[in-house]
Design brief:
Layout: H1 2-20, E1 41-45, E2 51-55, H2 65-73, E3 76-80, E4 95-98, H3 104-112, H4 114-122, E5 126-130, E6 145-146, E7 150-162, E8 176-188, E9 195-200, E10 216-223, E11 226-231, H5 235-240, H6 244-259, H7 270-297
Parallel strand pairs: 2-3, 2-4, 4-5, 5-11
Antiparallel strand pairs: 1-3, 6-7, 7-8, 7-9, 9-10, 10-11
Length: about 300
């Protein structure tokens, strides 16, 4: 019995460091990145009602949890990496999703083509940016820039709190939720009227270095005719390693982005606007005609 107990303790001591290192932050011995195919690939052609474009050079934290979920949902999505997306016609898509934990080269191309993303949103597109950097594949020096000048600042938090419980992205999510880490950064220089959905707690159990509480980690705002949703929460990592609250946020976020896209809320075409204006004209003319007839009869 003593030998068995000693064996169990020995195994625990040997394996404990590996468990402690299982977090989404920088890995001292990172596994080799898993890169996606260089060309745009229609991975699934389902009928969810939206056409998604997923941009990633490498699988975030080496997991395909994002696209696995989209496939299971029957979403219509295309995957492309930075070598080809500068030439892509963004107007062919309703929602663009930028994956977390991308390598430094990806971020350089993203910044070089930033105007395309701004135009996409301005013209009514839905942009969903998973902004967790400083992970297994991404550099801690990479800063995410969003339309309107919003930027990220690194800070690791083991817990996040919900700031806006009415936003559908946090439906079914605990008010005080946990992850290894829950978030990697916060957003600053926010656009006016930005909805702050989740915030930092300043608690860092993984490294013991506390941060500042109350800073935005998940935000949403309208820009031009479109919508931007961004989070530094560890979506893909959390879905892979069963941090249910944060994984639920990713599922909700994809659904919200689709439901508030051009496909769900189409802007009338010029011919449709013509019919609308003609209908209004007929209504006004008909109303005036009836009022005149009533006045003549009186």
């Amino acid at each position: 019995m003593k030998k068995l107990l000693l064996l169990i303790i020995t195994v625990f001591v040997i394996s404990a460091p590996s468990f402690s290192q299982l977090n989404s932050g920088p890995n001292q011995n990172p596994p080799a990145p898993v890169f996606v195919k260089p060309g745009p690939t229609v991975t699934n052609a389902g009928g969810s009602g939206c056409k998604f474009l997923v941009l990633e050079d490498n699988l975030p934290w080496n997991t395909s949890a994002l696209t696995d979920y989209m496939t299971a949902q029957g979403d219509n999505f295309t995957v492309a990496n930075s070598s080809v997306f500068p030439g892509l016609d963004f107007s062919q898509y309703d929602v663009i999703v930028v994956a977390s934990d991308q390598n430094h080269a990806f971020h350089l191309v993203f910044q070089a083509n930033f105007a395309k993303f701004v135009n996409f949103v301005t013209n009514g597109g839905s942009l969903e940016v998973h902004s967790a950097t400083c992970g297994w594949n991404s550099a801690c020096t990479d800063v995410i820039t969003l339309p309107g000048g919003v930027v990220t600042v690194d800070q690791f938090d083991s817990y996040n709190d919900i700031a806006d419980p009415t936003n559908p992205i946090v439906n079914g999510v605990s008010n005080h939720f946990f992850g290894h880490f829950a978030s990697h950064a916060y957003f600053t220089n926010l656009v006016p009227a930005t909805d702050i959905i989740t915030i930092t707690t300043g608690i860092n159990n993984d490294t013991g270095i506390p941060g500042i509480a109350g800073l935005p980690t998940t935000i949403q705002y309208h820009y031009g005719s479109g919508l931007v949703t961004a989070t530094s929460c560890t979506y893909e990592f959390s879905c892979q390693y069963s941090f249910t609250d944060i994984c639920t946020m990713m599922h909700n976020d994809l659904s919200y982005s689709c439901n508030h896209s051009i496909a769900a809320n189409p802007v009338p075409t010029m011919s449709q606007w013509g019919l609308i204006i003609f209908g209004i004209f007929l209504l006004i003319f008909g109303t005036l005609y009836i009022l005149r007839r009533k006045g003549t009869a009186a």
